[in-house]
Amino acid sequence: MRCEFIAIGTELLLGQIVNSNAAWLGEQLALAGIDCLYQVTIGDNGQRMKDTITQALERSDAVIVSGGLGPTQDDITREVIAEVMGVDLIRDEEIAEKIRYRFESRGRVMSDNNLRQADIPMGGMPIPQMPGTAPGLICPLGDKVIYAVPGVPFEMKMMVNECVLPDMKKRAGLTAIIKSRVLKTWGQTESGLDEMLTERMAYLDEVGGATIAFQASGIEGLKVRITVKAGSEQEAEKALSDEEKAVREIIGEFIFGTDEETMESVVLDMLRQRNLTLAIAESVTGGMVGARLTSVPGSSDVLKGCIVAYASEIKYNILDVPEGPVVTPDAARAMAEGARNALGADVGISTTGVAGPSEQEGQPVGTVHLGLAIGDYIEAQMTQLPGDRARIREYGVISLLNFLRLRLLGRDANTPFAGKTR
Amino acid sequence: MRCEFIAIGTELLLGQIVNSNAAWLGEQLALAGIDCLYQVTIGDNGQRMKDTITQALERSDAVIVSGGLGPTQDDITREVIAEVMGVDLIRDEEIAEKIRYRFESRGRVMSDNNLRQADIPMGGMPIPQMPGTAPGLICPLGDKVIYAVPGVPFEMKMMVNECVLPDMKKRAGLTAIIKSRVLKTWGQTESGLDEMLTERMAYLDEVGGATIAFQASGIEGLKVRITVKAGSEQEAEKALSDEEKAVREIIGEFIFGTDEETMESVVLDMLRQRNLTLAIAESVTGGMVGARLTSVPGSSDVLKGCIVAYASEIKYNILDVPEGPVVTPDAARAMAEGARNALGADVGISTTGVAGPSEQEGQPVGTVHLGLAIGDYIEAQMTQLPGDRARIREYGVISLLNFLRLRLLGRDANTPFAGKTR
């Protein structure tokens, strides 16, 4: 089945909004086994909308139109679809009642133009999910179909996931269950992972059952996506688990989490399981390590706090760093220990380095020392990070969290540290 | 002049990359006074590329194609454009030499397929700017024109700014200088600003010379963009300054910066001018205030540091907050003063609150207290912030920075504080 995506909105053409819906939808369609060959963006103009939808119907089996479903005079997607179908709009009284109720239940006065949203092209149906006041539409036309969904991302996503994709798969006769799992990796390049998994991927090409794909995620590392197709939910789940196991046997050391897990959620979970509390001392990252860990709900049972020692005297006075240069492994170690002592935690971690734009203490931009203190084990690791000020700092944060993660696992290529738990 | 933008790349259709080029280009074209009515995304497929470019030439005067200019077999934009033009590709020896030199000067071996990038459709010209190894193209076709630029954002932007837009304006006979300035506001809604500026905008509609437009920037507030058109650079600059003055007279109290300025850069500049140093105490924002201020190069001459007192005992022990509830105005004040004292700064600011998902100390999610200590002036402000955990925290950060900004200006609707400088 071929699908085409048409985004309606002058604000998209003017660049006032980035069309992130297109990327999201593209990914969902690909995962569902549906081809999407064209994405088109046009403004709120009747003739251009009509021409574009008509052309899309000629070259695709299904068309998803987003936007133009609101209550204002600009919003003409309903009218244009009715025109393309050659039918009238009929007011759906059930939907009209829902819209009236939404306003009344919030004590707001409803202007009559809101009821335009209850108009449905004859032969079409409203999409049952209705997170906002604008209902979506399913409009069959011969053996083809037009779907209309709002441009608001969360409304669009709910309707696509719960109605449009299942309907489209049914029409396409796609009965197979497609499921995927993302394995998140850190510390290996795409070509490195590709090389390690070449044999496995060649094997899968031959026997089928699953596919493996890579997806770069910027500073967050590389995702390895396993996708399986099966006759039932249960079979799909088993195939996923089997393939995950096989992949982990090959690149397991680089995998830090799956699906919704993040580096910060994984590190917090590991500390929690080991009954360890954490303290942070930051210099070059200026609070980003703390910000990232506290973005996870419930982080307060692990994280005691963080000292951003931006001025050197704070490092000396509060963290007991010996006076002298501060972009050094010694300073990183002292900071990790100082944070642990000052904040009364079991584990201390730290960053000190040079994010630029200019060098510091004779160290080049990108030099970042990571510090770690667990029990009697106090260590520093030096990294040379690429990119501009923002990237160096972001890389510094995730590098520090991964450093802590590996040590909690008792894993390191160079030192014999075997992890400590209380 | 009408322009159409065609983005080439299967990875865009699959949602592996968000098409942020489209938004950026849309904004540049609008600012240059060029209409863009269609944006189309297609994969690396010869026939579909040919069809789409041909259709674009029928309905637009200029077509910008991005992507497909690299050295691999997938990259066929050059071939397709030559086919649309009905001409052959000719190797440009000067470009070929440049490509060879790039490889040699980095000590890398060049495979021959890299020279494909030096092939130019007959009648076309390479774009002189060449930040990568893929040259862009200008290909006139009758009174229309096709531009080809790489998909890599920074390469695309350089070529568009320095070559494509000037060329397009020349072809369109657009000799007017168009210039714009962004005034960044915080603390007023779009409808509020719209109402305040209605009269001014009606006046401009009548007499011309400048236009005013609003652009929402999420938690960063609202941008007010002034755009002027004039015969010379000098006239444009004067018209901009005059209109900025007029707008500031109406909404000046909400404007915190212009163009590249940010809330954090403005606050740091104000502290620097007043010779004041800053200390931060954070709870609910977990390091985000520190992270945001230290994102500005040179912040170290103003910012001493930050204490993220996530656990209550850190608030009591290090910041001298009186034992008891910590989501209170008293705690916010004590934290601001405690940070100032502990870190030896002139000014202290603080956040304490509830980001959710669940309430705390009987306070609902979204409650955030901001604290401020300058000289003898110690104050707290309570805010009730909307959204989920991430948004509440982000709003908390910018609200705190704006709170400090207003106090440094000696401005407040409710208290008589008139600012202090040493």
Which protein chains are joined by the largest interface, and how many residues does each one contribute? A-B, 67 and 67 residues
Major sheet characteristics of chain A: 6 strands, mixed
Overall strand count of chain A: 17
CATH class of the largest domain in chain A: Alpha Beta
Number of continuous helical runs of chain A: 13
Architecture of the largest domain in chain A, CATH level 2? 3-Layer(aba) Sandwich
Question: How many discrete structural domains of chain A?
Answer: 3
Mean pLDDT score of chain A: 92
- Helical content band of chain A: 40-55%
**CATH homologous group name of the largest domain in chain A:** MoaB/Mog-like domain
Q: Cα distance, first to last residue of chain A?
A: 57 Å
Question: What is the general shape of chain A?
Answer: elongated
Return residue spans of chain A where pLDDT drops below 50 for at least 5 consecutive residues.
413-422
Structural class call of chain A reads alpha/beta
What CATH calls the topology of the largest domain in chain A is Molybdenum Cofactor Biosythetic Enzyme, Chain A
Give helix and strand order of chain A, one letter per element, not per position.
EHHEHEHEHEEEEHEHEEHEHEHEHHEEEH
Strand percent estimate of chain A: 15-25%
Largest sheet strand order of chain A: 2-1-3-8-7-6
Q: What's the Cα radius of gyration of chain A? A: 27 Å
> Which quaternary structure do these chains form?
homodimer
